[in-house]
Amino acid sequence: MPRKYFRKYLPTQESVKGSRILSVFGKTLHHPNLWHLHRRSVAGGVAVGLFSGLIPGPFQMLAAAILAVILRVNLPVALLSTLYTNPFTIVPLYWVAYKLGTLVTGGGSNGLPRKPLEFGDVPFSEWVPALIDWTASLGKPLLIGLPMLAACLAVIGYFAVLWSWRLYYSIQWRRRRSRLARSAPRSPS
């Protein structure tokens, strides 16, 4: 069972309460939904992580943690599900967000930004400012498309987890019923 597997690696509520490092946060991290693996808490954690994953820069996990605590969903799942954005996926995701924003705002003739992204001979330390400058040139379509894409991904992720959770347990119940039916003594006819 996947819950038993993941439960080995997740902290318990008692370990969080007893942690000296986490005592800085007081009782904020003591709510049981932040640590328990149940259907709604995990689905909410995935939704929060998918929503926060599109926040630019290193603020993804911070936003996911804050939203998970506020919404009382599984904190580790929320943090882990932000990792779908990485250097390989961020550009296609931002392109989809830009196209979605262009579709909604009706702006942009060919859907391409006016300013091309060129790193050329720019040192690595200046890549982040160059990327921020290029992203700012995308303007209103990206600004509108990012929250829309984040919300769509969060809703899809939430319902996908609920559906797959239900599917997994319905399969497990069928298997259990068939095992019990096979092992039950048959009455003589």
TrEMBL record:
TM stretches of this protein: 42-70, 77-97, 144-169
Source organism superkingdom: Bacteria
InterPro entries (UniProt xref): DUF2062
Keywords of this entry: Membrane, Transmembrane, Transmembrane helix
Domain DUF2062, chain residue ranges per copy: 24-174
Leader peptide range in chain numbering: none
Protein name, per record: DUF2062 domain-containing protein
